[in-house]
Amino acid sequence: METTQAFGLAHLWGQADMVIRIVALMLLVMSITSWYLILVRGLRQLRARSFDDAVESFWAAPDLTEGLKRLSKRAPDSPFESLAQQGAAATDHVRRHTHRETLGGKLNAEEFITRAMRKSISLSTASLESGLTMLASIGSTAPFVGLFGTVWGIYHALVNISASGMATLDKVAGPVGEALIMTAFGLFVAIPAVLAYNAFTRANRVELSELDAFAHDLHSWFCTGARISPLNEREEAPPSAPVRLAGAGGAA
């Protein structure tokens, strides 16, 4: 019992050299960073669940101004709000400056709006992907960092055992077992990071596809004053009754 208590994390840290301690601190920092990113991104994904309702509320608004207010209230600082704001600003800019004999006045309105919305989507994509590279790096390198600590610990344990001249099983098992803990630490850091990276990547892919669909509808509405209706609705609705965001046709 006393022999078992003589080995453990405290004993490993006490007899470890500077290299082992640096490796352990690196794994600790990587673990803290990983869980911080997981917490921040997880809270962000929980908030993203309300974005669909915010988009529906936007299209149900009586005019563009009210629609933007609803997006700002229900999905503040979201990619959907940014996209709608950029599209509205680009449309207003084109409407106010196309009559002037300037380079901006000669630009094609649809192309100008498309570029503004594409810029918003690019910025939102970069924001969504922030932190994912760090998670991927931690998930891929942490096991090797832990393995390096294990190899280094086993090497020094065997050197010390060889110097003492007592190579019995009870003298070898303890130090080697302590060194193997570093590999376990590396896996403990890497596994949550890898799982979180895969989950967040999939969630971002779904959100970006929804953002792209929203951008398609917005572009159609800003350029023509009507959203593109599904085929079955177009067959049922009369040609003279396009789907419009009521009260905002003047902004197109």
From TrEMBL:
GO cellular component: plasma membrane
Membrane-crossing segments per the record: 18-39, 132-159, 179-200
Region annotated Disordered, chain positions: 233-252
Residue intervals of the MotA/TolQ/ExbB proton channel domain: 106-211
Chief place of localization: membrane
Membrane topology, as annotated: Multi-pass membrane protein
UniProt keyword annotations, A-Z: Cell inner membrane, Cell membrane, Membrane, Protein transport, Transmembrane, Transmembrane helix, Transport
Family: Belongs to the exbB/tolQ family.
PANTHER family assigned: BIOPOLYMER TRANSPORT PROTEIN EXBB, PROTEIN TOLQ
Name used for this protein in its record: Biopolymer transport protein ExbB
Originating species: Azoarcus indigens
